[in-house]
Structure formats: C-alpha cells, structure tokens
Amino acid sequence: MDTSLLWRSALVQLVAVAALSIVLAILLPHSFFDTWGWVTGPVAWLLCAALTARVLHLPRGSTLLGALLAGIPSAICVLLGVHTVGEVIAVVLFALWCARLPRRRPVPA
Length: 109
Description:
This protein is mainly alpha-helical and 109 residues long. It has one domain. The protein is built from four helices and no strands. The chain has helices at 3-27, 30-56, 60-80, 83-99. Helix 1 runs antiparallel to helix 2 and helix 3 runs antiparallel to helix 4. It is globular, with a radius of gyration of 14 Å.
C-alpha cells in the first residue's frame, strides 16, 4: 500500500467534493437537493473520483469502481440520517482503495 497515495487521494477527493458542493449550494436552491440529491450526490462523487484519477494518474475505471464501492456505506449513512459520517467513511474507503492501485505514467506534454 502506497501511504503517500492514500493521503493524496483522500485530499484531492475531499477538496474536489467540498469545492463542488459549495458551487452547487450557491447555484441551486435547497429544495433541489431534497428532490434530486439522490442523483446529484452520487454523480458528483463519481465526477470528483474521475478528477482524482486524472490528477494522481490512476487508472480511471478502477478508481471509479473504488468510488462506487466506497459510496455504498455512505448511501447507507444517508438513509440513516448521518450524511456527514457517510462522507468521511466514503473518503477513507476511497483513499484506501486508491492506495492499492497501480499508477499510470503521466504522458509528457
């Protein structure tokens, strides 16, 4: 397990999710999330995971699979009414998954 990658993937995912959440909260009314949060939350999570894969040169498919699997306990937490706990669990599980992935070589510019 690459502990450096673990911390970097957790940080990139956390910052990406926080930034996107802030932008969406500014642009959309709260009622939107009451109706469409079950769709926008997972889509936003996967978009942030794709960004994390790109930034850290991880295989996109495997990274998205890890994000999907890490999102399952998060979804359960949402159903139990502890959304924030679910977010923390998802980031930790996602980072652990990423730390075990092989890294791609960056393509020279």
